[in-house]
Amino acid sequence: MCIRDRFEATELCVDSLREGREVRVQGLLGGSRGLFISRVLDRWGRAIVVVPTEEELDCLVDDIGFFSGNERVIPMAVDPYGLQEPEREALRALLRFLEGEKAAIITTPEGLLLKVPSKEVLEALKLSLRVHQVIDRNWLIERLVELGYERVPMVETPGEMSVRGAILDLFPPERADPLRIEFFDNTIESIRTFDPHTQRSTAKLEHVVLWPAKLEGPNPLAREFADHLIVVEPEEVFERLKDFEPNPLFCAYGEIEGFLRDSPKVLLDGLWAESEGIRVEVQGHQGLREEVRAKGLKVLTFRIRDWFSRGHEVNIVISAEQQATRFSEILESYGIRGSPAGPKRGTVVGLSVGSLCRGFVLKKEGVVYLTETEIFGRKPRPSLRPKRGKLLDFDELKPGDYVVHVDYGIGIFLSLIHI
Prior knowledge:
By secondary structure, the protein is of the alpha/beta class. It has 14 helices and 25 strands.
């Protein structure tokens, strides 16, 4: 049985929401948030998740992607003070919602305040095109300009369009590649995607749906799209919303304050508090890296055996397949079996290749997730500037010492050969 089927807190949470009640879940730390939200997505299909900062956004995107697959998470980093147009980022995310994708949009507090059109208006604005369709080419070009596309000599970035004779190129914001539509008079002869750098066609399409290239509307995103809302560290999120200064693209907090107060939602607190809620007992792996550095991997193997003695399921997340194979060999040298096929309670460590921001221990469920970073620290990145002095004194190494290579990862030092 999968751990996601045993996470009791999600069942209690979904039951409360069905009754139209706000529910607070306390104690979720590290990657356990990604696991919880993945389980809720299995029941809801989709949700909007709000986190306090972009750093938390990046972590949660990794964690949900690890447990549910990257296709089920849509990052929407909306920076009202940045150089990029925030509505473009939001448009890509919301259109995936409108097209029926079962996924979670992860955004920061400002994302809830972004002004957008209603779902009904967006649906009414979309254009459907197919091969052999007869459509007034000039009308289509004018319509695309009305929908926010910018005419340019050559299409390079989302929201641009170019007209060259019988060829119409355009780059819908929700697509990874631009489109090339070829006409014969007013008949669409072909629709292809193409590489904007090489201009070569990459795929043939029979049908496409085109949405507006810009978000322009009077309504805050929260009221239009947050039917299923999850707020991580709600006190921080609401504080940022209250402090936000509105501008032409963003509403004031007062426009959604009542909606957020009265609507059913999930509030995720990292710490237990006196307020009522569902409490989950989660532990992190604070201090493990320092202990491994001071005493070696025997510290880790002691913990693994302790978890095994309690009947826990132990999973270690490794960044690359080659690393996982090497780490399995290291565990074997300590008498512990590791397998990429998955864990076995109390006997085999599961070695998964992926990206998990932080590990955790679910004591009640008896499940452990541990990341490579929490054991060995982050891999050093080569500096752009030359460093002075020696990086490593090879005379200090002894056969059998564990080392981390900048390119190849974990290894065991055997000897130094002079050539």
